[in-house]
Amino acid sequence: MNNDEQVPNEADMHEEIARVAQFLRRATRFWVAPVVALGLGAVACVAFYFLRKPLYKSETVILYSEGIRQTENGDDSHGGSRTVSTRLKEILTSRAELANVVNEFKLYPKTVKANGVVDAVDELRHHVEFKAPGGDTFSIAFEGSTPEEAKLVTSRLAETVIDQDATLRKKQAVVTRDFLELEKMGTESQLKDAEQALAS
Prior knowledge:
By secondary structure, the chain is mainly α. Helices cover 70% and strands 12% of the residues. The chain is built from 7 helices and 3 strands; from the N terminus they run ααβααααββα. Strands 1-3-2 form a 3-stranded antiparallel β-sheet. A hairpin with a 2-residue loop joins strand 2 and strand 3. Helix 4 (95-105) crosses helix 6, helix 4 packs antiparallel against helix 7 (147-199) and helix 5 packs antiparallel against helix 6 (117-127). It is elongated. 9% of the residues are buried.
């Protein structure tokens, strides 16, 4: 009984080996196409690696402290319903500020030469990233062609946002102070009138 079982098993094994050998013979006839495809893929990868200019990303985080709210209904200090993140993003993407950055660091010279500063500003916008993950932190990132360029431009963008926001807050503080002084003068005048009416 054991011998009868072993004979079919050996026959099956020989058939399997014959099938594998036949498959390998067929496969060797078509070896050119996979090798050529593999070679072309390797050449494309090497060309992509050497011809593509790498981009370097620099990111800075700003901790924003709004201070005392200047309106009774809790609106922020500039623009009423606009949030702080919206205001900071508008400052960051301002065309005038970005044009100053393009001119200062001589960014995208080919675009500036071919189409002017306006197109270079649009290209800069594509490489600038603003994130407001929540809370009082905001991040500004820039992708440049060199590590030094990425670092310097990111630093300048952060300085611009901080300086412009501080200027807006100072102007708002002056307006609020003047308003409170006028209110104080009006209240003092009403108080004097009330005192005179009481004295008479």
